Amino acid sequence: MKIEKIELFLCRLPLVHFFETSFGRSYDRTFVLVRVEGDALGKKHEGWGECVAEANPYYSSETTETVWHIIAGFIAPLVICQVFDHPREIFRALHRIRGHNMAKAGVEMAAWDLYARSTGQPLAKALGGTRDRIASGVSIGIQDSLDQLMGKIEKELAAGYQRIKIKIKPGWDVDAVARVRATFGAIPLQVDANAAYTMADAALLARLDPFDLLLIEQPLDYDDVMDHAELQRRIKTPVCLDESIHTVRIARDAIDAKACRIINIKPGRVGGHQPSIELHDLCARHDIPVWHGGMLESGIGRAHNIHLASLPNFRLPGDIAASKRYYQPDLIEPPIDISSDGTIAVPQGPGIGVNIVRERIDKATLRHVSL
Ligand code: OSB
Ligand code: MG
After folding, report:
1. If you measure from the C-alpha of residue 294 to the centroid of ligand 1, how many angstroms do you get, rounded to a whole number?
2. 105: closest CA among 62, 52, 38, 47?
3. For 7, which of 115, 206, 252, 333 is 20 to 30 Å away at the CA?
4. d(CA 18, CA 35)
5. Which atom of ligand 1 has the smallest separation from the CA of 243?
6. What is the β-pairing status of strands 164-167 and 239-241?
7. 3-state helix, strand, coil in the chain (%, to 5)
8. Which three-class secondary structure state does DSSP give residue 183?
């Protein structure tokens, strides 16, 4: 396959409901869409990807502007008009660019879509997926009050989601979890701290133990492994790493150090589908369950996530929910929805298998470039 053109779209969409994590509240989402055009098996095809970097460097060091700079200046020259036998080769071809995984993933994932379309198969099949529906959970941000949080959880449980994740931060943790358990009983429940705590909080985090959480996600700093290992020795709740796992090698170190019992996979964080498959396989070999994280993606990134989450070691429900929780309308038609059993169907058409509505992309676009 050969990519002949890369287009970037800097987009902004309002969120249906604000989303608050330990690092701040957002009312809209700014992101970069990637469209590739090229030749595969002697025919012209397109492919779409979504860079999950945000406008600010608070979840990760990448931003929409760094993604733009790195793709236009460094990734495009290494990819355009190069011949690849398979999209799995692209991540490796970008090796001399250090970091910038979200920029790499946007292009790499678009290339996988192009490849799957050109071979007439759903992306899930090309990736090695083994199921045709994925289990769906929701991530619920910090709210203005615990009453408001209970209202949100009630609504999501009624919609059928298989598990609830709530964001926590100092001052919005043990009491919030206690209130959820008191109100909803033994529902599948997990928490995400987005690195808001330090080892000085170990005793406080141990107070979550009696609540039988599925996991606590990224309690400590975004680049830490060894303190998480110490924390895991002191608490019963399984530690799950998100931010810290930005390469397959760090995942190996974290597993060896027993810093986590579960890993969250976000393809943007590790550089695309190929490194995600490697991370998935590494975890499977060590009997570490994985689940698919979310980054408030539009329907394009969300569709990619659904395909990846069809691999067998995605054993816990993902943060992959219906489009209408995020954007109305979404950039795809029909929007992604869940069925009453809390699952989402893996699209069966070629590639990501969703219809992209170009007029909606154009309307959301603040800047465009063709490389
Ligand atoms: O840590 O998982 C996270 C959203 C933005 C940045 C980081 C995270 C999240 C979420 C949202 O939790 C998951 C979703 O897309 O619903
Ligand atoms: Mg997280």
Report:
1. 5
2. 52
3. 333
4. 28
5. 1
6. unpaired
7. 35, 25, 35
8. helix
| Alpha carbon of 197 to ligand 1 centroid (Å) | 17
Which bound ligand lies closest to the C-alpha atom of 318? 1
Confidence bin at 268 (pLDDT 50/70/90) = very high
Nearest to 105 by CA among 162, 48, 153, 144: 48
Helices (H) and strands (E) in the chain, counts: 14, 15
Tokens 């490849």 sit on residue: 115
Distance 218 CA to ligand 2 centre (A): 6
Nearest to 336 by CA among 319, 315, 314: 319
- Counting Cβ atoms within 10 Å, is residue 44 exposed (0-12), middle (13-18) or buried (19+)? exposed
Distance of CA 191 from the midpoint of ligand 2 (Å): 9
Atom in ligand 1 nearest the alpha carbon of residue 218: 1
If you ran DSSP here, which 8-state letter would residue 211 be given? G
Residue nearest to atom 8 of ligand 1 (CA): 295
| Tens of pLDDT, residues 45-78 | 999 999 999 999 999 999 999 999 999 999 999 9
Alpha carbons 281 and 356: distance in angstroms, whole number: 31
Best probe residue, ligand 1, of 319, 320, 326 (max atoms within 8 Å of C-beta)? 319
For residue 320, what pLDDT is reported? 98
Q: For residues 223 and 32, give the distance between their C-alpha atoms in angstroms, rounded to a whole number.
A: 24
Question: Which residues contact ligand 1 via a Cβ below 6 A?
Answer: 59, 139, 192, 194, 242, 293-296, 319, 321
Let me know: does 305 contact 273? Beta carbons within 8 Å: no
Cα(116)–Cα(120) distance, integer angstroms:
6
Number of C-alpha atoms within 13 angstroms, CB side, residue 8?
A: 24
DSSP character at residue 207: T
